Amino acid sequence: MKDAGKWITDAHPTYTALIDEKHLVSKLYNMVNVPTGVWIDEKGNIVRPNEVAFVDDRFKNFTGMDSAPYLNALKDWAKNGKKSAYVMNEEKLRDKLTVNDPNILLASAEFGLGEHLYKSGHLQEAIPHFKEAQRLNPKSWNYKRQAYALSDAKRDYGTTFGEEVQKAGGSKVYYAPQDLPAVVPPEKKPQ
Questions:
Q1: I need a labelling partner for 139 at 20 to 30 A (CA). Which of 16, 103, 160, 168 fits?
Q2: Closest CA to 30 of 177, 161, 128, 141
Q3: What is the DSSP string of 16-45?
Q4: Cα angle vertex 5, ends 31, 124, to 5°?
């Protein structure tokens, strides 16, 4: 909070800004990358789970992802609410939000232990737990990003974040594609 707090205060946001120093939200909802968007309605219900969400095209050359489809879906939801074609039904939401893999749960515990050790001044003891979290949940780029930022990644992990992205196929496949249904705008539907 100490680093981000000033920026948030100076921006005078009209919305709640969450600083999740303990990574609780990402653990609870298995958020594995950034930027991530989650749609929550006025009643506090999730209507679309976490997914990659760019607000503009500044990284399009790097990621290969166009922001327009997501932004158009978001605008449709703002306009149509629960009637939006982009709002997921309960069954699909449950499927997307349920973590059935015990390795993902163990990875969260290992990463939490690593964080505790690091914050207690025991970086070298934390590293094996960060490595185990990455092994158990290799899709979590948050685990890699955070662990590598806390030490000398090349020395302690034998790799760097950039090398891991390249191993995955490069920046254009680093982000999972969005699960947006193909929707024909009303003005383009045949009469």
A1: 16
A2: 141
A3: -----TT-HHHHHTT--SSSEEEEE-TTS-
A4: 55
Taking the C-alpha atoms of residue 11 and residue 126, their distance in angstroms, rounded to an integer, is: 36
Q: What are phi and psi of 56, to 5 degrees?
A: -160, -175
Partners of 37 in the β-ladder: 51
Give the closest residue to 137 by CA, choosing from 100, 112, 106: 106
Helix or strand or coil: residue 95? Answer: helix
Return the pLDDT at 187: 59
Supply φ then ψ for residue 63, to 5 degrees.
-95, -25
Out of 34-38, 77-81, 95-99, 182-186, give the one with best mean pLDDT.
77-81
pTM: 0.72
Is residue 64 pLDDT above 70, yes or no? Answer: yes
93, 49 Cβ separation under 8 angstroms: yes
Confidence of residue 97 (pLDDT cuts 50, 70, 90): confident
pLDDT attached to residue 98: 78
